[in-house]
Fold:
Amino acid sequence: MISNIIEKDNTLILQVEGRIDTINSEPFEKELSQAAASANGRELLLDAQKLTYISSMGLRVLLSLRKKQPYRIINAIPEIYDIFHMTGFDKLIDIEKALRNLDVEGCEIIGAGVNGTVYRLGADQIAKVYNEKVPLDYIKQEHDFAQAAFLSGVPTAISYDTVRCGDKYGIVFEMLNASTFAGKFHGHPDTFSHYAKLYADTLKQVHNAKADTNALPSAADKYNGWIDQSGHLYSERERELMHRMIDSVPKRDTTIHGDFHPKNIMVQGEEPLLVDMADVSYGHPIFDFACSTLTHRIYPWLMPENTIHFMGVSADEITQLWWLLLESYFGTSDKAELEEIDKHLMHYALLRYALQPIVLPQTPEEDVQRTIRIVRERLFPVIEEISGKLFF
Structure:
């Protein structure tokens, strides 16, 4: 039966409690119909966290409501979710399984970034716990992207389930005795070149994976969307030039990681595993290099003192890694050729940098103004010349 009605913004939540069976299905139907009618255009949610049993008559009541108005079921406990699944009910109505609670108190921290912290849960599992401001929909999207990438052949950790950690949410991954690439690089000059080669091979493996274009977004569309949102930063002419640069990039169905740097990749033995999959998309590899050039080249130049915090390695180490990455990925050790590749990639990194205030709206105003100044000095004067001239 309905134990509580909660109104939140544009949502009406009906909390269903106890057993719904033959005996009480008729009064439940009347109660549910009356309460649902008060939604008045708002999204209707049935919270099933305290629902302990539902019979076939109860399911028919839910089906009857579906004919009158759309709704979703949330927080279905495993026993109730199994009933919905076995009867095929989950094919008719969007049903969300209740998240299990996870306690990470006392767990070893093996990585931390802008969006959250990675904890080791035991010998064979880790949990990525997101900050309070990261919405659950975003986390579930990353879970879906990780699965799509894994099925496409990307070396990503196997994701199990989405969990609740107090007021935060997280994803549990399978992981055995792993550390980040940053941990392999920082302070380890003797093995630096070895892991730099593995690092480059990992990026090539990502780019060799054909993406599921039905499950992942287009990288070009993401960039064009950011440009559309930047009207308060750039003139109409500048936005037109950025659109033209993006539209000139050849279409590909290559998997794009979107945030490839040493802190976002784990190493399990000699096996690389990506754990940050929130920005996965498909398109030309230049979109990966745009972001990686930003993190490996532009950020260490702008704020070398923060490089260790953001990427787990020093500014000198990330610079050394960058040149080894280019050498291995593009198969050349010719210094002049590598410098030309770097120069070409830098243009796309500047475009990505130009859009950073849109990607990260919390960017301080001082940094926003610096970004605009730099891209107007270094990108817009040459953007027409370089558009459509990708070298790979």
User: Anything to note?
Assistant: DSSP finds 15 helices and 16 strands in the chain. The two ends are 62 Å apart (CA to CA).
